[in-house]
Design goal:
- The complex is a heterodimer of chains A (279) and B (265).
- Chain A is an alpha/beta fold.
- Chain A is 38% helix and 20% strand.
- Chain A has helices spanning 46-53, 76-82, 99-109, 114-127, 143-156, 173-187, 224-228, 231-236, 243-253, 265-278; strands spanning 6-13, 23-30, 35-39, 61-66, 69-70, 83-86, 161-165, 193-198, 209-214, 217-222.
- In chain A, α5 packs parallel to α6.
- In chain A, β9 (209-214) and β10 (217-222) form a beta hairpin.
- Chain A has a 6-stranded mixed β-sheet with strand order 6-7-8-3-9-10, sandwiched between helices. Chain A has a 4-stranded antiparallel β-sheet with strand order 2-1-4-5, with helices on one face.
- Chain A has one domain (6-224): Rossmann fold.
- Chain B is mostly helical.
- Chain B has 2 domains: 7-146 and 241-263, no CATH class; 153-225, no CATH class.
- Chain B has helices at residues 16-19, 22-35, 42-58, 63-87, 104-130, 133-143, 154-184, 194-225, 244-263, and strands at 93-97, 100-103.
- In chain B, β1 (93-97) and β2 form a beta hairpin.
- In chain B, α2 runs antiparallel to α5 (104-130).
- The longest helix of chain B has 32 residues, at 194-225.
- Chain B is flat and about 70 Å long.
- The chains are: A alpha/beta (279), B mainly alpha (265).
- At the A-B interface, α2, α3 and α4 of A face α7 and α8 of B.
């Protein structure tokens, strides 16, 4: 048995017998990387991968191994204990009538005693900075706040892996920023792996590894820095590199040396002041 | 405005009635509705009225608010009274309206039935006024628990109710959004003949239904992802507790019922 946490072995999937294949012979492993980003344009099969990892869908061909278990009807409940998932629409994953009840939902499903539940709810809401909203109803929260509650709900069940399936796609810039902050702070916890699924390359800067999907196949498995260097190829599959990376490219073309492709504003700034002080 | 949205007519508060276990309230009201039909003397009606009005005052909700909540029923109560006045022909003729005779029995009967009706509505509305919908849901789940033996889906029913409650504000917001979107395309909801206004609701309902179904599907998936596999082996965060207050309330109620039977004719 390999020591990878998630492994896809020649996985193919389609939604119906007369439908086109969404995933075609996909294989990859997620080992001890703390944060893996899966990117691709709409219809590239990236969301399907998320649902397959959690046993919400089953592949027609190939097998998926999560935490040493091959996903099938019998193992999904055990797999779901170690894999938490946050979806795109903040409203449609809020089950409870209040924040507290919603975080409790996953715990209730697992039959966790009430006293432990109360403690875990407090802890996980604190981790996402939503403690003061514990008794709020969902309609009194913004989209970003609802997504933070969704992350808290997942944290409460203390999974090994959290999948964020376009969790920021429906948020405004402020909400998106907040969520990325939360994700970053959550990532620093021990024994927690993250898989974020997105079509926004701005969000993958901190990932340890990037899997690029195109037309149902793995197009590349690389690091963010190496990926941002391939602007032309990315454009062909409908993805665009972030502004910072573009700017850096322009600098290089102007003859200003940028040693490594920057992942964010700070890194670009660093390069620039080093260059400036050398002048 | 949405912050003020109150589902049903629940008025938050901390009165003695608010703090009762919802199961106690439901039980008392259930038996009250049953025993009210045993009242047949002036004194027995007096006791029941005292009990209902006393409880209403004990909630410390503004009387005007409670009365306002009863407005739709006033008409029904009045109607019942008038019907009895015209139909019942007991006792002596008290007076005549034009040539139509009104009997004393009709007045007594009409008043008694209307009073009964009024008390019924008052007491049942006290439940929804002082208990949040989610508490009622929990109480129903708990009280219906024995029905599980005959395979009645108690847990599913309660979950359905709580999810509906959770989505009411969401769907209201959505309705508002859709109606604005349709109004911006020229659908007129507010003026014109009734028939046209009813027709204008169709472009509102269709998108609302479609999105509700979509939501349901996504919600089901999210619930499954969070490990939901039915009511078996589930624990609950919200718990119901019967305290000394509930025993006091039940005892008072039993005394009232005893008094009712003592004062019956």
């Amino acid at each position: 048995m390999s020591n990878s946490f998630v492994e896809f072995r020649n996985v193919s999937f389609r939604y119906g017998d007369d439908q086109p294949w969404v995933l075609k012979n996909v294989s990859f492993q997620i080992q001890s990387d703390k944060w893996v980003a899966i990117i691709g344009h709409n219809g590239s099969g990236k969301s399907t991968i998320a649902k397959l990892m959690n046993g919400l869908l089953f592949p027609q061909e190939g097998e998926i191994i999560v935490n040493g278990l091959i996903i099938n009807e019998e193992t999904i409940w055990d797999v779901r204990k170690s894999v938490g998932m946050v979806f795109q629409n903040p409203d449609n994953q809020f089950v409870g009538t209040t924040v507290k009840d919603d975080v409790a939902f996953g715990l209730e499903n697992r039959g966790i005693p009430r006293e432990i539940m109360i403690r875990r709810i407090d802890e996980s809401l604190k981790a996402v900075g939503m403690s003061e909203y514990i008794n709020h109803e969902p309609h009194r929260l913004s989209g970003g706040q609802k997504q933070r509650v969704a992350i808290a709900s997942v944290l409460a069940i203390s999974p090994n892996l959290i999948i964020l399936d376009e969790a920021t796609a429906m948020l405004d810039p402020k909400g998106r920023f907040d969520i990325l902050q939360v994700i970053n702070s959550v990532r620093n916890q021990e024994r927690l792996m993250l898989v974020t699924i997105t079509h926004d390359l701005n969000e993958i800067g901190y990932a340890d590894k990037v899997i690029v999907m195109n037309n149902g196949s793995v197009w590349a498995e690389t690091t963010p820095r190496a990926l941002f260097a391939k602007e032309k190829d990315l454009k062909q599959i409908g993805l665009d590199i972030p502004f910072v990376a573009k700017l850096a490219k322009e600098f290089i073309e102007l003859g200003i040396p940028i040693n490594k492709t920057p992942l964010n504003h700070d890194e670009l700034l660093e390069e620039l002041w080093i260059y400036h002080s050398k002048m | 405005m949405n912050n003020m949205l109150i589902i049903g007519q629940y008025v938050p508060g901390s009165s003695f009635i608010h703090r009762l276990d919802p199961r106690t309230k439901i039980t008392i009201i259930f038996f009250f509705v049953f025993f009210i039909f045993f009242a047949n003397s002036l004194l027995s009606y007096g006791i029941l009225t005292l009990f209902s009005v006393g409880s209403a005052l004990a909630t410390r909700i503004k009387v005007s608010y409670i009365i306002k909540g009863l407005t739709p029923v006033w008409f029904l109560i009045l109607f019942t009274f008038l019907l009895h006045l015209l139909v019942t022909k007991d006792g002596e003729v008290l007076f005549r309206v034009f040539t139509y005779p009104i009997y004393t029995g009709a007045i007594i009967q009409g008043t008694a039935i209307s009073l009964r009706f009024f008390l019924l509505i008052l007491v049942t509305s006290l439940l929804t006024l002082t208990t949040s919908p989610i508490e009622i849901t929990d109480a129903i789940e708990n009280l219906l628990h024995p029905l599980k033996k005959i395979k009645f889906p108690v847990h599913e029913l309660a979950l359905m109710m709580s999810i509906s409650l959770r989505f009411i504000p969401t769907l209201l917001q959505e309705t508002e959004k859709i109606s604005k979107a349709q109004a911006s395309r020229g659908v007129d909801f507010k003026t014109g003949p009734i028939k046209e206004r009813i027709q204008a609701v169709v472009p509102l309902l269709v998108p609302l239904f479609i999105s509700a179904f979509k939501r349901a599907e996504e919600l089901a998936m999210a619930m499954e992802a969070r490990g939901y596999q039915g009511g078996e082996g589930r624990t609950k965060l919200r718990e119901l507790k019967v305290g000394p207050l509930d025993w006091v309330a039940l005892l008072c109620f039993i005394l009232i019922i005893v008094a009712l039977f003592v004062t019956r004719k």
